[in-house]
Amino acid sequence: MVRSLFQHTAITHGVAVHVAVNFMPEQSRIEQGKWFWVYHIRIENKRDDVVQLLSRHWRITDAHGLVHIVDGEGVVGETPVLEPGETHDYVSGCPLGTPHGSMEGHYTFGQEGGGTFEAAIPFFPLAAPATAG
Asked: Could you list the residue ranges forming a coiled coil in this record (predicted)?
């Protein structure tokens, strides 16, 4: 059996959001107090209708409990339309001023016939290896 690359999953209103996260030591500047992670997200439409990702809402928390909220249109400049059974993948990154933290949030989707709904982005930890700093 092949192990899934995705470590965290949430399914809300028939939309699955899968997340894989990796610490990037080569993009971090630990001596300057900057740690960097890359996350890969796959959004999967398990519904019977077409949906469009309209916006994102992120809650990013560092090891000191400082919360940074990020709201914006689409993901990485796109507002993908997903037919039933389709997926959309993208990769993005998150810098932090601490070696540990977390991310979570939701996407807002439009649906056929009007109306919107939110699909959860699962909570996932950001953790640099102990040897990294």
From this structure: none
Residue 93 domain-assigned?
A: yes
From residue 91, give the alpha-carbon distance in Å to each of 20, 22, 37, 116: 9, 11, 11, 24
Rg of the chain, C-alpha, whole Å: 16
Query: Does residue 129 form part of some domain?
Result: no
| In a domain? residue 51 | yes
Per the structure, the complete domain to which residue 18 belongs is given by: 8-123
pTM comes to 0.92
Residue 130 lies in a domain: no
